[in-house]
Design goal:
Layout: H1 2-22, H2 33-49, H3 52-68, H4 70-77, H5 83-93, H6 101-112, H7 119-133, E1 137-143, H8 149-163, E2 169-175, E3 182-187, E4 190-195, H9 196-211
Parallel strand pairs: 1-2
Antiparallel strand pairs: 1-3, 3-4
Helix pairs in contact: 2-7, 3-7, 5-6
């Protein structure tokens, strides 16, 4: 009886040790390139701190500012502004406790390394990692003009039907006037080109073949 009682704490201790070892803070997927390395480093740090969602929200707020403020986006991408000046400006804008130390350190590092102009790409890469962690299928919808609420809803419904009901979908939209009309849809690794430009290219190719 006593021997069994003495073994119980050891068993629980072993279980706790195994559980600790099982925890992984590595990103759920690998994104190549510089943006992927930065995003992966932020994901790992945020995971260890237990604030993945918080950092995602903070990066989303900065991303929204980049989109809405031409002055801010111009400042980030202006090569004539020194790294020191950008670091100082970013330091005043992204402060604790309004932002986590992880988000603040990311932008200060980007500014110091001359990579602050790539902030939007790094934010997108982080969002891609978060979507992968949730098991969501990443979907990108590209249109010649911004889609209305009803149009976007109809496209999203079609995408959900394609992916399968019950499977989470992470949808982002982009505007590219060069496709002329129609849509281009990226669902995971699948690319659907329903654009007018692709149809024009097909017709041109057919005409060239006929004339050959």
């Amino acid at each position: 009886m006593n021997r069994s009682l003495r073994l119980i704490p050891k068993t629980f201790g072993a279980t706790r040790l195994m559980s600790t070892k099982a925890v992984s803070h590595e990103p759920p997927k690998k994104i190549h390139g510089t943006t992927g390395r930065y995003a992966g480093a932020v994901y790992k740090a945020a995971s260890k701190a237990g604030i993945l969602d918080k950092v995602e929200g903070e990066l989303g707020a900065v991303s929204e500012l980049i989109v809405k403020s031409s002055d801010f986006s111009g400042f980030l991408g202006n090569p004539t502004i020194s790294r020191a000046d950008k670091s100082e400006k970013i330091g005043h804008l992204i402060t604790e406790p309004k932002f986590s130390h992880i988000t603040r350190n990311l932008f200060l590092t980007l500014a110091a390394n001359g990579r602050i102009g790539e902030a939007d790409k790094i934010i997108s890469a982080y969002e891609e990692l978060m979507a992968a962690a949730r098991g969501a299928v990443k979907v990108t919808i590209i249109s010649a003009e911004a889609l209305g609420k009803k149009q976007l809803g109809a496209v999203e419904a079609g995408v959900v039907a394609m992916v399968g009901k019950g499977k989470p979908v992470d949808v982002t939209t982009e505007v590219d006037p060069s496709i002329l009309g129609g849509l281009q849809v990226m669902v995971g690794d699948r690319f659907l080109d329903l654009s007018v430009s692709s149809r024009v290219a097909s017709i041109s190719a057919a005409l060239d073949s006929a004339q050959a």
